Amino acid sequence: MTTLDVPTLAEVRKWPATATVPQAARALRISKSHLYELIRRGESPVKTLSFGRRSVVITADLVRLLSGEEQAE
């Protein structure tokens, strides 16, 4: 992965309400398989929604994490 593949925070802010796991993994600079594993174990650093076997990441939570904001409970 090169820095050209990693979206900026400004780019992530423009994404739709949800992002794919591969998109979120690139933004987090981790592999998509690692993010899928974290989601499976319930340890994802970002909020996700599951639709059957498909998971998506909540973009607002990804922005919160990338910008260093505190997580709302």
Explain what this protein looks like in three dimensions:
The protein is an alpha+beta fold. It has one domain. The protein has helices at residues 9-13, 21-28, 32-41, 59-67; strands spanning 18-20, 48-51, 54-58. Strands 1-3-2 form a three-stranded antiparallel sheet. The longest helix is centred in the middle third of the chain and has 10 residues, at 32-41. The radius of gyration is 12 Å and the shape is globular.
List the helices and strands and how they pair.
Blueprint: H1 9-13, E1 18-20, H2 21-28, H3 32-41, E2 48-51, E3 54-58, H4 59-67
Antiparallel strand pairs: 1-3, 2-3
Largest sheet: 3 strands, antiparallel
Radius of gyration: 12 Å
Termini separation (Å)?
Answer: 33 Å
Bulk shape: globular
Secondary structure category: alpha+beta
Percent of residues in helices: 40-55%
H/E element order: HEHHEEH
Which regions have little confidence, pLDDT < 50, spanning 5+ residues? none
Strand content: 15-25%
Could you state the oligomeric state of the chains shown? single chain
> How many domain units?
1
- In the sheet with the most strands, the strands line up as 1-3-2
- Average the pLDDT over all residues and give the rounded result: 92
Number of strands: 3
Helix tally?
Answer: 4
For the structure shown, list the relevant keywords.
73 residues; alpha+beta; three-stranded antiparallel beta sheet; 4 helices; 44% helix
Please give a quick description of this structure.
With 73 residues, the chain is of the alpha+beta class.
